[in-house]
Amino acid sequence: MHHDNGIWVSTEDLMRDESFLQAAEKEFSVENLDQTDGKWETNRRDFLKLLGFGLGAATVAASCEIPVKKAIPYVSKPDEIVPGVANYFASSFVNGGDYCAVLVKTREGRPIKIEGNTLSSVTKGGTSARAQASVLSLYDTRRIQHPGAVKEGNVNKMEWNALDREVKSKLSAGGNIRLITQTIISPTAKKALAEFTTKYPTARVVTYDPVSSAALLAANEQSFGARVIPNFKFGEADVIVSFGADFLGTWISPVEYAREYAKNRKIRGAKGAKMSRHYQVESHMSLTGSNADNRILIKPSETGAAIVALYNELTGNSGGPKLSNEKSAAAIKKMAQDLANHKGKSLVVSGSNNVMEQLYVNEINRMLGNLNTTIDFNAVSYQRQGDEREMMRLIDEMNAGQVSVAIVWGANPAWDLPNAAKFKEAFAKVGTRISFNGIIDETTAECTHSAPAHHILESWGDAEPKAGHLSLIQPTIAPLFKTRQAEHTLLEWADSPNLNRQDEQPYYQYLKSHWTSDLFSRQTKYSTAAAFWDMSLHDGVLEFPATEVGAVMNEVSLNPDAVTKPSGSELEISFYETVNIGGGQYAHNPWLQEMPDPVTRTVWGNYLSIPVEWDGVNEINGWKGLNDGDNVEVEINGQKLACTVVRTFGQPAGTVAIALGGGRESGGCGVGYGVYVNPVLPVEGGLIQYFAGNVKVSDKVGADKHFPSVQFHHTMGVQAMGKDEGKVINVDEKTLGWKGFQGALTDRSIIFHTHVNELPKFAEKMEAFHEEAEHLNVQTLYPDRTDFFGTGVKWGMYVDMNACVGCGACQVACVSENNVPVVGKKEVHRHHEMTWLRIDRYFYGDFENPKVVYQPMMCQHCDNAPCENVCPVNATNHSMEGINQMAYNRCIGTRYCANNCPYKVRRFNWLDYTTADVWPANEEKVFRLEGDDKPFLADNLVRMVLNPDVTVRTRGVIEKCTFCIQRIQEGKLTAKREGRAIMDNDVRTACQTACPTGAIVFGNLNNPDSEVSKLTKANAPIAYKVLEEINVRPGVSYSAKVNNSNEELYS
Amino acid sequence: MLLKRICWVIVLAITATISLTAAPNVEEGKNLFIANCAACHNKNMKDNLTGPALGGMEERWSAYPRKDLYAWIRNSQALIATGHPYANELWGKWKPVLMNNFTGLTDDQIEGIILYVNQEYNKKPGGAGGTTPTDVATTEKKSGTPWLFVGLAVILGLLAFALMRIINNLANITRVQAGQAPVQKTLVQTLTSKGAIAFLVFALTLIFGYKTVDNATNMGRQQNYQPDQPIAFSHKIHAGVNKIDCQYCHDSARRSKHSSIPGTNTCMNCHAAVKKGTITGTSEITKIFASIGFDPIQSKYIADYEYWSEKQIEDLYKKWIGQEYMAANNLTSMDENGRMTVANQWEGIVKALKNDSNGKIQGPIEWVRIHNLPDHAYFNHSQHVAVGQVACQKCHGPVEQMEVVYQYSTLGMGWCINCHRETEVKFKDNPYYDQYERYHNELKDGTREKVTVEDIGGLECQKCHY
Fold first, then answer.
1. Of A79, A339, A423, B174, which sits most exposed with the smallest number of CB within 10 A?
2. Which tens digits make up the pLDDT trace of A981-1023?
């Protein structure tokens, strides 16, 4: 079986299955609506009735008085606020060890958008989906609004001083005090904690991370004498090997690593191109694995065996566990050769949570001469500090009745520990249990008191993600509720003399004094403390020059028997953290829930990835004949989970995988979606293992009738066997091909890919393709519009698919910037997701071990747009700046445009998702949080997140990417006002600024000096337009995907 | 082409000649009067306003050389300072009201104004009276159009009737020729005939449709909307008489899309000193004090004003109003009228500041918003004010003459579009527009006369809707 262009998205696609035809037809079918709207039929009489009512209503409405609107100015207008103009504040996004230096965009004092802070040398202006979405969690209706006593999952209101009195009396009663935290990267918070533990000597801080890196820290302590994470320089390495570490998606500092990684992946021109080579040794296809040049498939319990195999190959040793897959074992040998050829220019990392495995990795890096080249200790990372073994000890302590006060700060052990049930049991034995968490999560529900902390956007604070790289957190809105800074609460309880309680913001003073005393003296740039503070706050970051620390490795004895022994069982399962909801700590954010998982493309929950099976000829099926959306029962070491399956390419035979973070039980929108898997995580030597052997999966026991996978939605260029045609057709062109009017184009140019060594030859091929496309394109009746676009600005975009890692930050940024509604699981199931920007995931290469291309797909702003000439009311048309415009108030919802869009980027408001409409009946079926009587976006608190510069669309209109027209307008106006030519930096789209790797570039194509023009030109001929041959003349160019795979790996 | 250019040259030459040989001119005088004088001097030239009535000023100044009158108009205070007797007499009568300086006016322009003043002064009372000629023109246009149509309709109706009769008669003639009896339709029969009913239905549908569309277009439009405001703020006094720049208060107009209403603190920039209005006395300005918490007696802000009870506020401002009343009337103790004034003014303060959304006196003043753009339309003040350098009056009308502001324009889309079609872009002075090379070339080689907003995409949907 061979696929025409070597690209596929799923088994149906590969087998040209009929279900694809159905999926494509479903996109805008009324049949789809029938699933919930039983009474959708309209006959002539109904029509007349409605017409009559409409006329009547219009008459009544016309005679109504226009409501009186008020204009309420400030009493004392703050100098820095100009109504209608956004202010940006430098701050940081911090959640446990997750960190991003950000700028917070506020309008009239209300944060609405997160941008990256380019001054930070850690994240360099990049952001993550999690950081982008953090602004929505500020306006979470489930936030605790005041301190109080917790009773049956409710917080009974108390005043802060009453709570303080009560807690202080308990604290000073003399028993053991334990603080349970996630990683804390704030130096000032640590200072506050130190004050607290000094005041109460019986207090101890117990830190663990929701997804553990404890083994890595422990191994580094043994190898390098410091319990830290070294500075990994992915940008300096020519060969990168990762044993299951998802460093582009979730591991330690993905935003930083992704930017570094992409540096060596971008192609500039076909001549002399060079790129790094990336091997990923893993089981489940992680985001990082999907970007790798070569994946070496192993069973999850064989990570240790694989590491030892590499070590043995490099040293000539033998011994240790063996890999079950011989192909993989052979591949590791070749990989070792590649590593050995790149001494000092390679990097090996591992995500495993076994200390010996991590010790082996350290030794491998030392042998390869990577210490002080690609791995150094000049700026170590503090982004993971936790150790779950401490938690295990704490549970014993609590069980023994040795703890009298427990304070939970940010952590959620009653949910994310594998032995959460045991924790709860032990926790109940603690007399006073206090939570600082902002929502009533599983742990807070078990507490006696709630002392809710501010949201990060309401807080003061600082962060030191890496040694010498500090950044500040400043509030961008006054606290919405009666919450209090956690550090303030601790200092208050510690009766700190350094906390000025008379001050309006005591912790601000505390923070400032820490900075102006401790940090001021360490720098030389500013001569006064005031200037130092003001400028640090303005920049958001403060960086000290790196001090050279020559890493010296201790002699550590390696024992191949201490690595994980392969389970030997027929079926194994791995558990992984997702880019969006992490280990579950982000599960209550609807934007993140509705962001598709990059690889499985599912939303709202976690799904069991099962392998696909190829019979070697024509058939590709889900393992055990299972289909997407089928329910199965999974038995892991005797515990049962009810899962829904999704067939996943690249999932090795004999393995399955499921994400962490599903099935939250309390606290917000994540409740009720997905499977709670944490209780089945095995614990080895106190360390949580993210895989298990001895797994049984039942046959199909049912199906999820709202299985929400966007895989089959908005497809383009997908081929299937046409029933009526009796031949292979393009499913999107079904209507065209239907009566044989036009032969469907079956070989369309959506993805081009090549090997880096083949580039010159490939460039020739592309040259020929461009010529052919141009030849086709000039055979047209459409007028040439070069002149029309030739003067002034012509907006265009360049997407580098070699830099795009598929992390989804752009998608969430787009949602945030453009008021794209959350539609919920059922609506996604009905193909009704509203995202303007989707990241298409395509496979190519070997069916059993495919490679992946991510293609961010948004409106292409075609100059010959097919959508424009089918609109009966001219609601969508072209601007002379090359923008395909969409006028919502003109749209009457015929959906002809969406039907005619070859890229499938237009979205229709089937329901009144944003409650922008006046008829309450329209809101009935709109997404709402569990237990809420009004739709999610009807709440005034949630609506505070809306961008006032973008229309909130109502039911019945089409919408799509606008190239962030509001930003274009703003940028142009700024240039005009300043009386100068428009520059690249004036207009940057939301997706562009969010991208951690700089994969998206936007600008003026008419200006030969703009970055977008230069890039498109430099990358010719491998830069191409999607569907270039159909003469729609898109404004977006893509670069061909280039890989640097080791072609001999499996030969 | 050449002919066209020659025409242009001639037109330009004529214009130039006209402007060079500018003599005293009533029309110019009228424009100057409206622009410079009308804010303070009554347009009927007979009654006093902020300044004296101008009618008969020539006679009053006849005892002095004409140049004294010019000097007075250009800079009245300078003339007073020279000890000019009539100037000092006037000052004695009208002080402390200051007349603005108009140093830029030429003798001819002043003569033009005087001509216009005399013309208006000598008009017979009861004529076009208070309305300006433009007003008359619009009223005439408005009332004239329907009558024209009614007349036409009547004529057409009669014509149709006559034609119908003729057709009927001709039909009868053929009938008679064919040996049939002529049919004589009664009026009722004619009116209930199929044709008549069909016509009626058609006409009604047409009228109904037209009215529906017309009403729908005007739905939500508020031209001439002139609501009462919580404070009787007079733009005429601020922008007209005192010539405060619009953007002194509406400062965000040049920076933002909104030209927002100034905060109370902006009012206080002046009103910390100007504590009483020339016309309204304490009744309006005290509202500003009560909003922000300014003690006019001690001339300082109240620190904990936020926590004051209504009683405290009432005591303070009543005291102030009373004190000023007594001072103005040279009283040593309060009289009945004074007590009423105090009570009334306090009531006014409560009414203006205390409302549903804010149950107390302190806090922002809730103005009634007059200019409401249609929904889903983006408009940016800064684009028009700072870049396009459009005068505020172009859209907002003669605000400096408005005692109470009203909506001058329709704010409808057609109105926007029309202006974008006509308005020329400030193309040459702003390097931003250098990118429009084609237009620059066309301007240079003469194939293009001007570049309008439309030419650079000013009519495109997504300039305003997104």
1. A79
2. 999 999 999 999 999 999 999 999 999 999 999 999 988 889 9
**Which residues on B lie below 8 Å from A973 (Cβ)?**
380, 382-383, 387
ipTM attached to this prediction: 0.85
Whether pTM > 0.90 for this model: the answer is: no
Using CA coordinates, name the residue in chain B closest to A969. B463
Mutate to test the interface with A, among B255, B435, B437, B456 (most CBs of A within 10 A): B435
Closest CA to A822 of A916, A925, A668, A927: A927
- Which chain A residues are Cβ-neighbours of B456 within 8 angstroms? 792, 880
- What's residue A846's pLDDT? 84
Question: Which one is the CATH code of A231-376: 3.40.980.10, 3.40.228.10, 3.60.20.10, 3.40.50.300?
Answer: 3.40.228.10
- Mean pLDDT across chain A: 88
Q: What is the DSSP string of B61-108?
A: TTTS-HHHHHHHHH-HHHHHHTT-HHHHHHHHHHTTPPPPP-TT--HH
Chain A segment 948-977 residues within 8 A of B by beta carbon are 949-951, 962, 965-966, 969, 972-973, 975-977
Give B173's contacts (C-beta < 8 A, 6+ positions apart): none
**What CATH class does A148-212+386-522 carry?**
alpha beta
The shortest C-alpha distance from A74 to chain B (Å) reads 5
Q: Report the candidate in A372, A354, A321, A333 with the shortest Cα–Cα distance to residue A241.
A: A333
Question: Would you place residue A959 in the very low, low, confident or very high pLDDT band (cuts 50, 70, 90)?
Answer: very high
Residue among B195, B149, B184, B228 at smallest CA distance from B406: B228
What backbone phi and psi angles, to 5 degrees, belong to A636?
-120, 115
Domain count, chain B: 4
CA A355-A361-A367 angle, 5° bins: 140
Would B75 be classed as within a structural domain?
yes
String of b and e for A59-74 (b: at least 16 CB within 10 Å)? eeeeeeeeeeeebbbb
Out of A68, A791, A881, closest to residue B438 by CB:
A791
Surface of A (869-898) touching B: CB under 8 A: 875, 877, 879-881, 883, 885-890
The answer to whether the CB atoms of A73 and B262 lie below 8 A apart is yes
Cβ–Cβ gap A792/B257 under 8 Å: no
Interface test with B, best of A55, A60, A63, A69 (most B CBs within 10 A): A69
Report whether A814 contacts A991 (CB < 8 A): yes
Would you say A290 and A650 are in contact if contact means Cβ atoms under 8 Å apart? yes
Return the axis-axis angle of helices A44-63 and B194-218, rounded to nearest 10°. 60
Q: Are B343 and B285 part of one and the same domain?
A: yes
- Structural domain including B326 reads 262-353
Q: Is-contact A355 A215, C-beta < 8 A?
A: yes
Give B199 to chain A, closest Cα distance, Å: 23
Q: Which fold has domain A569-703?
A: Barwin-like endoglucanases (2.40.40)
Q: Could you give the CA distance from residue A12 to residue A544 in angstroms, rounded to a whole number? A: 54
CB contact under 8 A, B220 and A74: no
User: Which sequence spans correspond to the domains of chain A?
Assistant: 148-212+386-522, 231-376, 569-703, 749-1042
Q: Looking at the domain A749-1042, which fold is it?
A: Alpha-Beta Plaits (3.30.70)
Half-sphere exposure of A118 (CA within 13 A, CB side): 8
Which are the contacts of B339, defined by CB distance < 8 A and separation ≥ 6? B322
Which residue among B375, B431, B466 places its CB closest to the CB of A950? B466
* Contact state of B466 with A69 under an 8 Å Cβ cutoff: no
Angle, helices A506-514 vs A486-493, to 10°: value is: 90
Q: Do A70 and B430 touch (CB under 8 A)?
A: no
Are residues B367 and A949, on separate chains, in Cβ contact within 8 Å?
no
CA distances, A745 to each of A717, A749, A899 (Å): 8, 10, 17
